[in-house]
Amino acid sequence: MKKIAIGATFAAVFAGVVTAAPARAEEITIGAVIPLSGASATTGKDQSRGIELALKEINAKGGVLGKQMKVIVEDSGGKPQTAIDAAKKLVSVDKVPIVIGEYSSGNTIPLGQYLVQEGIPHINPASTSGLVRGIGATSYSVVGLDNVSTEFAAQDVIDHGWKKVAVLAMNNAFGQGVAEEFKKNFTAKGGEITTTVMYTIGQSTYRRELQQVEAAAPDAYVFTAYGTEGALIMQEAFELGLQEGKPWYSILITMMNKDTPADFKEGLIGMDVGYIGDDGDAYKTEYEKTYGETFLSAYGGYAHDAVLFAAAALNKAGSTDQAAVLRAIEDLGKEGVKGATGEIKLDADGQRTHQPYLKFKVEGEKLVAYD
């Protein structure tokens, strides 16, 4: 398990160097669990950048409760048990008052359930499965769930004139939620799902699943996939000729776009959560200045905002007392917190009420937003 106290030697973790900096009395430390290795490592790297920039912003304004703020980041490796073990470490050893995490819903749900059991506030920065809503009373999301995202995607697919589609999604909490909610929204709009194929993540090939969706003779293919798995699916779809004459539409396209070579994604379109909201220009500018490139995914900004939300809760609580922090989060959920992704308000279940989304098309190596 890799650990780094962000605010110290942040980049070291990506070079395989572990930097462990114990919390000092003059610091306020919270925890985060994200995938710095595994299939979603690119997104995890983007999340870590968002966390780092949030800390820079917060500490430049005086920190939290008059002290500098730090985030101890643990690597989930993209695995549920590793994510849970990381959360246990943050709670029992580092004694953090808030934990942010993870990325995949299949990891976020058990991680969040453990934190709820311990009474520790959990902030979800990326997972969108509808099952996230049921994690528990002390779990909160700064990203919209898939009942909202799939309605947006379904309308976009209908607007392109594709009335019969085949759906391909990973067989985990996130993929199951996307497939179910997309079908509900798409059929309600007059569309037809010719087949739904759920695949197991981590396979060496997806040719069997691709042949199954091809056999359903759809107008278009609608799919969702993580990083390197999405790259393999698109490569094999290209090799099997499935990209000839029939469009591919990706739900949450930035999850896999950076990992997919241009030759295998030409013409791909899709949607994703908006990188930034109305007040996000400064974050975008600082990101590009700091890292010399644009966002690696759509999720760095949400990790950034999770840290901002946590800092606001601690300041409002006036301490790291568990009960006080939970009351502060509930109040902030009603009042709203402005972040890079827009204003964050929470519903009665602690889930974000409003979520920006974007439509994208692939042009060479670039992902271009369109109306």
Would you kindly provide a written description of the structure presented here, covering whatever features stand out?
By secondary structure, the chain is of the alpha/beta class. It folds into 2 domains: 3-144 and 277-356, 3-Layer(aba) Sandwich (Rossmann fold); 147-274 and 358-370, Rossmann fold, CATH 3.40.50. The protein contains 11 helices and 15 strands. It has helices at 41-60, 80-92, 105-118, 146-159, 173-188, 207-215, 227-239, 254-257, 281-291, 300-317, 322-335; strands at 3-6, 27-34, 68-75, 99-101, 122-124, 139-141, 164-170, 192-199, 220-223, 248-251, 269-273, 337-339, 342-344, 357-363, 366-370. The chain has a 7-stranded mixed β-sheet, sandwiched between helices. It has a 6-stranded mixed β-sheet with strand order 1-3-2-4-5-6, sandwiched between helices. Strands 12-13 form a two-stranded antiparallel ribbon. The longest helix is centred in the first third of the chain and has 20 residues, at 41-60. It is globular, with a radius of gyration of 20 Å. 54% of the residues are buried. Residues 7-23 have low confidence and may be disordered.
Question: What is the topology?
Answer:
Layout: E1 3-6, E2 27-34, H1 41-60, E3 68-75, H2 80-92, E4 99-101, H3 105-118, E5 122-124, E6 139-141, H4 146-159, E7 164-170, H5 173-188, E8 192-199, H6 207-215, E9 220-223, H7 227-239, E10 248-251, H8 254-257, E11 269-273, H9 281-291, H10 300-317, H11 322-335, E12 337-339, E13 342-344, E14 357-363, E15 366-370
Parallel strand pairs: 2-3, 2-4, 4-5, 5-6, 7-8, 7-9, 9-10, 10-11
Antiparallel strand pairs: 1-3, 11-14, 12-13, 14-15
Helix pairs in contact: 1-10, 2-3, 4-5, 10-11
